[in-house]
Write a structure and sequence with these properties.
This protein has nine helices and 17 strands. The chain is an alpha+beta fold. It is elongated and about 75 Å long.
Length: 398
């Protein structure tokens, strides 16, 4: 009787394990996917300091240094110029260094929007945006200001707001201006990119006899019009960039929605679209070189060239898309990703390179568990207690 009682128990354990396995695997494979924003805007080369005075920097070690403080100029790729101030007092941006436009979340003001908002206020209320030097001097109680002392005082105020640097302008009028700007600085929101596409990546499988329309990607810019250029590889595959009505798009404006129209039968792949235009870069935008201390913040801009790129991906049928997909019958929007989307972790990158997935450890654990459980089932079914068998045999003989 004991041996036969173990059989239902073993079967129940095995069935429970087999039932749990698919659920565990599904849980490991599932997870949210988001569309990623693309980098966009202007890129430029630093010419160097053009309008500046002097400042005195007091180091934490007690050292005292005299450093230049004022306006830089940049040459924008494709045409245009920028006037900028340095963000970090420790930075010594080198002429001919290359910079690209970025948001506060990706630059030296990351995690310090309060400082970014106050610095933007300073830029909007001082030189060169406020070019009335007599009026600026009167408001600051600074006596008389020159372009050089106004630039020096503005730079000193930015350094103080950015990282609390112990720095002062060498010129008395410039120092009065710095104190006034620091004291009066309000808080303004982060300015938009000169040109951007939102989101930077959309995805969806190619299904149905008429193909799939993936998107939308929305144009964000102050330019009156931008050109829309699909990549040559996409055109060769028959992929088109269209509007909501399915019409090919060659130009777009702020708020325009672009879709990737992928023909049926198109093999797995990617396509990109680039928008290009000319506009002023908003005051307060950050330009980064890859060295945080060298970052610059825009104080003035001419009409400047800018560009942004977005990508569409169509995976194998059944694969999880990176966002909602619009079809030819009706389109659904892709939810924009947060501006500070995090990059994949090193573990995720290794999994991607190896061809494994996040479910691999779970599946391996389940496999080991099933092997062990199978062995237990075999033992339970085969093993009989000697005492029980002797009692049953004795009863039979009697």
């Amino acid at each position: 009787m004991r041996g036969s009682a173990r059989r239902p128990l073993a079967v129940a354990l095995l069935a429970a394990a087999l039932t749990a396995a698919p659920g565990a695997r599904a849980s490991a494979d599932s997870g949210p996917t988001t569309a990623r924003p693309a980098a966009g805007g202007a890129s430029a080369v630093l010419d160097g300091l053009k309008t500046y005075g002097q400042a005195v920097l007091h180091g934490r070690d007690g050292s005292v240094r005299h450093i230049p403080a004022g306006l830089y100029e940049m040459r924008v790729d494709g045409g245009g110029t920028l006037q900028t101030y340095g963000v970090g007092v420790a930075g010594n941006a080198q002429p001919q260094a290359r910079f690209t436009e970025s948001g506060w979340t990706a630059g030296p003001l990351a995690g310090n929007a309060d400082a970014g908002g106050r610095i933007r206020w300073v830029l909007e209320h001082s030189y060169p945006q406020l070019n009335d030097l007599a009026g600026l001097a009167k408001a600051a109680g600074a006596g008389a200001l020159t372009a050089e002392s106004a630039a020096a005082g503005t730079q000193v105020a930015i350094w103080r707001l950015a990282d609390g640097a112990q720095v002062e302008a060498a010129d008395q009028a410039a120092e009065k201006l710095a104190e006034y700007l620091q004291r009066e600085a309000g808080r303004l929101p982060e300015p938009p990119a000169s040109l951007g596409l939102d989101p930077g990546q959309v995805s969806g499988p190619v299904t149905g006899p008429t193909g799939t329309r993936i998107g939308p990607v929305t144009v964000r810019t102050a330019a009156q019009s931008v050109t829309v250029v699909p990549d040559a590889a996409a055109v060769a595959m028959g992929v088109r960039v269209v509007d909501a009505d399915g019409q090919p798009v060659a130009t777009a404006a702020n708020g325009s929605r672009l879709y990737f129209e992928v023909p049926p039968g198109t093999p797995d792949g990617t396509a990109s679209v680039t928008v290009q235009g000319s506009t002023k870069v908003p005051v307060g935008r950050v330009f980064a070189s890859g060295v945080p201390d060298e970052a610059q913040v825009v104080a003035g801009s001419s009409e400047s060239a800018a560009a942004a790129t977005a990508t569409a991906v169509w995976p194998q049928p059944g694969a999880e898309p990176a966002g909602k997909v619009g079809t030819l019958a009706g389109s659904a929007e892709v939810a924009p990703a947060a501006a500070g989307a995090e990059a994949p972790s090193p573990d995720e990158e290794r999994l991607a390179v190896s061809g494994s997935s996040a479910a691999t450890p779970v599946i391996a654990s389940l496999a080991v568990g099933l092997v062990v459980l199978g062995g237990m089932v075999v033992l339970l079914l085969r093993k009989r207690p000697l005492e029980g068998e002797g009692e049953e045999e004795g009863q039979t003989e009697g």
